[in-house]
Amino acid sequence: MTEPTSGVAKQELDDFLRAADKLTLDDRRLLVQQALVLIEQNYVHLPLKAAMHAVNPVQRLRLLAVRLSRQTPQTMGPEWRFHAELSEIFHGVRDLHTNYLLPQPFSGKIAFLPYLIEEHYDGDRRHYVVTRTLQDFSAPGFGPGVEVTHWNGIPIDRAVDINASRFAGSNPAARHARGLQSMTIRPLRVHVPPDESWVVLTYVGQDGIRRELSETWRVSDNLPPFVNADEVSVAAMAQGLDLGADEISRAIKLLYVPEAVTPQESLGGAELTAEPAEEGADIPTSMPAFFRARSVVTPSGTFGHIRVFSFGVNDPDAFVREFCRLIGLLPQNGLILDVRDNGGGHIFASEFLLQTLTPRPIVPEPTQFITSNLNLRICRQHQENPSGIDLGPWCPSMEQALETGAVFSGAFSITPAGGANAIGQQYFGPVVLITNALCYSATDIFAGGFQDHKIGKILGTDDNTGAGGANVWTHELLKLLLELPSPAAESPYKPLPGGAGMRVSIRRTLRVHDLAGTPVEDLGVVPDFRHRMTRRDVLQGNEDLLARAGEILAGQPVRRLDVQISAAQVTLTTALVDRADIYLDGRPTASVDVTQQVTTVPVPGAGPAHVIRVEGFQGGELVASRTILRP
C-alpha cells in the first residue's frame, strides 16, 4: 500500500477525536432546549413525519433533557455519545433539512477513505465497484473497476443498508443512496464520526484475486460553502439545500476533482468563447463548480449535455445567464439536463432556470409555515421589512389559523413570479431531465416544476428523487430574524455553544398544476422512465444512461422561433410553428398565420418597445416563445 500524497492536509481519525471533547454539561442542556424550540414551534413537517414514520422527536428531546438534568459533570459521559444521541433524534425524522450541526472541532471537517464506491446492476443483481482513488494511492490489484464484496466482514449490500438506516433519507431510495454515498466520505458537520477507526475492504482485484485492504479513516478540512446561511439575506432566506450532500459534493471536488475548485462561484464569463466546442469536448465555463456542458454522441444522435452540480449560489441571475450561454453553444436538436446528486441550494436559481426551457409561464411552488405563535412573531417582525425580507403574505392566514386551529398558513411562493418569467424560453429543442435519489430540496423543486409544467420527460436512475420539499433556515438565522430590524420581545433563541448549529424545515413546498397542493416532502418526483446504472455507466462516463436519454430525445420535434426587430416590423424565422402572436410591453399587438420559414409582420411601435414577446403556436397549442428585453 502507498500512502496518498495529495495536497489535502489530513490526520487519522483517532488523533482527531482525542482533542474533540469541549462541551460542558450546561452546553449540552442548552443544545437540547434549543432543539426543542425548533422542532416543537418551527418544524413544518412535524405532523407529516409523526404520521408517516411514527416518530415523536419532541418526546425524545424531553426525555434527553430529563436525563441531562440528573447528570453531573462527573457522570455526563463522553461528548461523542451526546452528539450521537442528539443526531439520532434529528435523523429520526428522516428530513435532510432538519439537522443538528456538530460544534468545533467537527464543523468544517470531513472524514474520508482514499476511494469511492458506486453501484451498478447486472440484470436484477446489484454490484459495488470502486470508481475513484486518491491521487498516488495504490494497493495490490486495487483501482477503479474492482468489485467490492465485503465491508468489515459484512456483505457489502447489507453493510450499505445498515449504514443507510442511520441517515435521514425521506424514502427507501433516498436512504439507500445516502447510505452508499456516506460509506467513504462523511462530513462531520452533519454526521457523527465513524464508529470504526479503520475499514477492512474485501475486493476482487483487477487480476481476479480476492484480497483485503485495511485503511484508516482520515480527517481533513472541507471546502467552505458558497452561501452564508446564517446571515439575513435573500440567499439565506431562500435556501433549499441538503447540507450533507452539498458537503460531500465539495469534498469530492477537493479530493478527486481539484481542477473544479475555484475561489469564486462566478467570474463573469464575458471573456469565454462564444463558439461551440468540438464534439465531446467540455465548453469552458466561468462556473465549473456548478456546470459541465458538452455535446455527446449517442446511438440516436448527437445531443447537448449539461450537468448542473448545485444550485448553491448567491446570485441566481448570474447562474441563469451562464446556463443560457452554455446551452446556446450546445446542439439545438435535443438537450440532456443532468441534475443527479444535486443537493439543491438557492430556490430562486432552481425556479428561474425553468423558464429557459419552456414557452409556458412558470408558476413557482407555493410554500406554507406551520401555525405557531413563534412563527407568527417572526412573520410580523418582517411584514414590511425594508431589507427585502418580506414575510407579510403569510401573516393574515397565520393570524386566522391561530383562531381556527388550521395546521398550516396560506401558501405563497418564495420565488418571485416576475423573476421566474423574466427572460422566457431560450432553448427550443426537446429536453430530458436525468434525476436520482440524491436530488434534493431546490433540485426536488426544480424537478417538480419541470414535470408540472410539462417541459419534457424525466429519466430516473432511482424510483424517485430525494423528496426534500422545504425551505430551510438555520437556528442563527431564526435568532437574527427576531432581533432585526429591531429586537422584539425576549427571544426564545439563545446563542449555541462551541460553534454548534441547527437547521429546520421552516416552509413546506407544494406542487402546482395537475398535482396542485401535493407536498414534495417524502413523496418526491417520480420519473417517467427508469434506468438502472450499468457497469459501463459508472466506469465509462454514463455511456448507457446517455444512450437511453438519446432514445427519448430522438424523433421529438425541434422547433425554432428567432425574432428580429426593426422600427415598425418584426421578422420571424420559425420551424414547426403555424401561428405567432406578438406583444409589445405586455399588450397584444399582432397575430399572424405562419406559412413559411421567414415571415415579416408589420408591427407599428416595435422600435421603441422595451419588452417584445412572441408566442408561437402549432394546432392551437403554445409550443414556443421568445422574449426580447431592451433598455
TrEMBL record:
GO biological process, any: proteolysis
Protein name: Tail specific protease domain-containing protein
SUPFAM superfamilies documented for this protein: ClpP/crotonase
Residues spanning the membrane: none
GO molecular function, one term: endopeptidase activity
Positions of the Tail specific protease domain: 304-476
Alphabetized InterPro entries for the sequence: ClpP/crotonase-like_dom_sf, Tail-specific_protease
Lineage start: Bacteria, Bacillati, Actinomycetota, Actinomycetes, Streptosporangiales
